[in-house]
Amino acid sequence: MKRRGKYRGIRIELLIIFVACMLRICWEYKLTSDYQRQQQALRAVVEEGARADAGNGTDGMETMEGDAAVEESQKRKDAVVEASQKRKGAAVEASQKRKDAAAEAPQKQEETAEDTEADVEREVPVILKKYEKLHEENGDLVGWLTIPGTAIDYPVMQKAGNEYYLHHDFYGEEDKHGCLFVKDIADVDTPGDCLIIYGHNMKDGTMFGDLDEYRSEAYYREHPRLRFDSLYEEREYEIMAVFLSRVYKEGEEGFRYYDFYTADTEEAFRDFYGNVTENSLYDTGVFASYGDTFLMLSTCAYHEEDGRLVVVARRTD
The domain 134-315 is classified under which CATH number: 3.90.180.10, 3.40.47.10, 1.10.10.10, 2.40.260.10? Predict the structure, then answer.
């Protein structure tokens, strides 16, 4: 009787464990499904905006072709760069004015800062139509990343502190998937030499879950290009390297790819380029030169503690 009672107790415990596991699986499935539906809804908004923009572009005028389209694209890029430079210059000027006026006229200082900020705001170029609605819903939106043929097709966010979008979705709700994001020091409008996008390596395949596939050269050959749009322009890239790394502790020697944003000298560029190509898992045959612009996609990897998988792409447009 005692043995029978003992076996009955074990069966009950196993049943409880089984039920708990099934409930967890169902809950994880629900979270993933809810997140995927949210992302699909965001994509639908972007697609709707793109269609509206295409429709407006043909009302009452001819579609731009050939050189005219290239010229218009260049004008948009020039406007973005010029506006960003003006914003930076105006910000520095405003800061200096505030310092000079602080001791004499605090009220005047405040008015000057407000006027300068208003001027800067008016100089911001027009947001691409397809991103207008989403940007109105969340001003942290700074772009959109797409790798054709993969599940990676997501908004990219930016917020001071860099931690928020590790654990929050586009609408600010807590979510383990988080969002793709760039650090607060990144200038997405004029990205300098390099821009780094971070995201979770999710086991359910969302976010940067597909980046693991780039360990295979065959997969890279099938998906060699990607797109990253800022709010103001569309950008094309080709993947040039894939490498494994890790977060280095203070005092350790190693290639800290996550600190690279701008190559102030050609020597600094060669150091970056040499590390990227030497550590690449395979040779893509894509070359770069001083003055090129890069995009890095960074996610967690589990080959070692604090491991990282990094995909490096060179801008082509």
Answer: 2.40.260.10
